[in-house]
């Protein structure tokens, strides 16, 4: 799978599948995720669409550009724009792209759609979240996760994700395969990259985009037991 270096010098790991002339669908994963988050969707999309999956900087196989430099939502958005321009250079898929975003990916998708309304033709957002800069309890939780991941290692974050990403009540049986998938995804992350991503979400400079600039059709999906990012 290829890498692309953005204007920020981010080395973005990404994958392309499906119809090379189809409309582009770009899949944006959540905190601790990777391109593998969306692997199960490929059989349903690759016949008609050009499916692009990417790893955000510091997660999956996209390395941190600088260990001592903070990450930001604005940086993710900028890197996404550069990658889209790179992919469309071949002239095969020039129609507006569809962004599929989960959690962190939904934040990036919303910001990009607001900043580049002519580039985005649709949004499909799962577990939609917004800026946490004004919610002190959420900021403290994210910063605590960053601190403990640095202190205790990535397995701390993996075990936490495998617990908090599923309903705690007994009315639903959690598929062990799904829980193991979440744990493996997060455990495969760079611990410093994971911590920096938590800090990017909690940063006081991270504000909501101007939602009035988002003009494309949008589908927002939320789980009725989702306690992390309920609508």
Automatic annotation (TrEMBL):
It holds the Pfam family Hydrolase_4. This is Serine aminopeptidase S33 domain-containing protein. Residues 23-227 form the Serine aminopeptidase S33 domain. GO terms for cellular component: membrane. Gene3D superfamilies: alpha/beta hydrolase.
């Amino acid at each position: 799978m290829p890498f692309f270096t953005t204007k920020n010098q981010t080395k973005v790991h990404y994958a392309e599948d499906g119809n090379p002339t189809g409309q582009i669908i770009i899949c944006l994963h959540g905190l601790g995720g990777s391109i593998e988050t969306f692997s199960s969707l490929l059989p349903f999309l690759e016949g008609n669409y050009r499916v692009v999956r990417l790893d955000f900087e510091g997660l999956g196989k996209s390395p941190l550009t600088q260990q001592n430099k903070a990450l930001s939502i604005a940086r993710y958005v900028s890197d996404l724009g550069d990658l889209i321009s790179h992919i469309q250079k071949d002239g095969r898929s020039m129609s507006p792209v569809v962004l599929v975003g989960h959690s962190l990916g939904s934040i990036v998708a919303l910001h990009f759609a607001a900043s580049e309304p002519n580039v985005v033709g649709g949004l499909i957002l799962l577990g939609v979240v917004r800026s946490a800069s004004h919610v002190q309890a959420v900021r403290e939780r994210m910063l605590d996760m960053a601190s403990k991941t640095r202190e205790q290692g990535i397995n701390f974050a993996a075990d936490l994700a495998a617990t908090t990403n599923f309903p705690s009540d007994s009315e639903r049986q959690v598929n062990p395969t799904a829980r193991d998938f979440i744990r493996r995804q997060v455990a495969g992350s760079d611990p410093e990259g994971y911590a920096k991503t938590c800090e990017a979400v909690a940063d006081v400079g991270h504000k909501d985009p101007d939602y009035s600039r988002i003009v494309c059709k949008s589908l927002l999906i939320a789980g009725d037991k989702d306690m992390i990012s309920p609508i």
